[in-house]
């Protein structure tokens, strides 16, 4: 989708303004309650974020299947949804239940996002997948292509996309309130898990965890303490580091407002890493080319305790996570991880129009029933956002080398040695 067409979609006047929002919300809830039997949802990964995603699925549809590789987590979820069938392998679930499933939620570690989503989508199932959409850049592109080919309702779980505060800030950027924008700075306090360390000692997996299924498409390795259920984020085979965990939230607003897709180069500084665990900290510089609506833009990402230069905000102290957009006329600062509540410096706020959301998850179920696609659908938004974000990890792997990027063809033109990070290999039985 072109920037101009996305702008028209973003700014179009809808009936979801003022009291219309309340009417639409009530209408949507009534529709869901009346037609729940038309949306049968299978939930893949039901612990952690998957617990709330499953609760959302139950609010807007029927939870007909639960899948998790951890028996303890699976059985806990089954107590809440006793009519749902239980599975430890999503492949078996999809094969056995077939037409009994209309849609899936995927709330697993990053490395299994693509296989679970792709298998379901190839079977014609609508898909909600947690952020980042995929583990690799190629996977994000491919999910978008299949979603479009099969005309599926899709959405990534970067919930701030449906927030009015984020959409208002993005609309202000689109309206040019800051004048020409030159720089974007985005930062997080992550990682809050271990990174930049040796692997844990091999150990026996607990009896309630199917370690082989947990590994899924990743290369075989022994179980070790710290992978399951949270520390996997810090390992290249399983997670996408601090960048993958948080940038789809924190960079979401400037991405929406400035169309930050298809960068032409990226370069990283880091604490150094062992090609197994992500570094303790990184600073990554993305360069975006000019478009018909704006000039070239530099975006800088900071994690692991690193922050932008304090002088950029003068007397205002940086919070642990947020974004700063710098234009010729002024600045826009958000002091949280989700892009809402932006504060303007040097310019006055102007009136802008932006579409209201009935709720992030509700956008997806509305689309399943024939409504418009969610803002964060795979082909037009979530896929391009994930491609941009994960390119940063490509530069981290390159260990300081500036990567020249051909976004159209997904190629690091001056660094063929990192091509395996663009598109990874899969264990036998896990390639879709």
Task: Characterise the protein shown here.
This protein is an alpha/beta fold and 432 residues long. It is built from 14 helices and 15 strands. The protein has helices spanning 3-11, 19-34, 49-60, 71-80, 90-97, 113-122, 137-149, 164-174, 211-215, 241-250, 252-258, 360-368, 378-397, 419-422, and strands at residues 40-44, 62-67, 85-87, 103-106, 126-130, 154-157, 181-187, 265-270, 282-288, 297-303, 322-327, 331-334, 343-345, 403-406, 411-412. The strands form two sheets. The chain has a nine-stranded mixed sheet, covered by helices on one side. The longest helix has 20 residues, at 378-397.
Could you write a compact summary of the structure shown?
With 432 residues, the protein is of the alpha/beta class.
Q: Counting H and I runs of at least 4 residues, what is the number of helices?
A: 14
Determine the N-to-C terminus distance: 26 Å
Structural class: alpha/beta
Shape: globular
Rounded mean pLDDT score: 92
Proportion of residues in extended strands: 15-25%
Q: Provide the succession of SSEs.
A: HHEHEHEHEHEHEHEHHHEEEEEEHHEEH
Provide the spatial order of strands within the biggest beta sheet. 13-12-11-7-10-9-8-14-15
Uncertain regions spanning at least 5 consecutive residues = 1-36
Quaternary state of this entry equals: single chain
Query: What can be said about the biggest beta sheet?
Result: 9 strands, mixed
Record field, number of beta strands: 15
Radius of gyration: 21 Å
Helix content: 25-40%
